[in-house]
Design goal:
Length: 131
Amino acid sequence: MKPVKRYLLLALLAAATAGYTLLLWHGPWWIDGAHLRTRGLQPADGVVITGFRTALVALGAGLIAAAGLFYTHRTLQHTREKDQEQAEIAREGQVTDRYVAAIKLPHRTAGRHLRAPAHHARLTQRTTSRW
């Protein structure tokens, strides 16, 4: 990631965190300020404030879970791409190994055929000398 993009992302994350904190703190009065008292809060005010903050915390937890799923998805995609590249490299290596083995095969076979008459003659000599 480029440094400029990283710093912009960090600045955006810091601004979102500050906004979330302010919304947790003053959000109930910004959203439902006409019905809430600023001094001498009553139990009904506490219910509204607690309900708002609970919903906001649940939303934050959901956003963090979604970010985790997104990160996991991207990591899985990257891993699959790397695995496919490694599999292709392995396949190419196998093809190369088979090609090299196929090239060496006629040379080995030719060498055996050239040595075969001499070997056969030695075997024949041994068997005839025993009788």
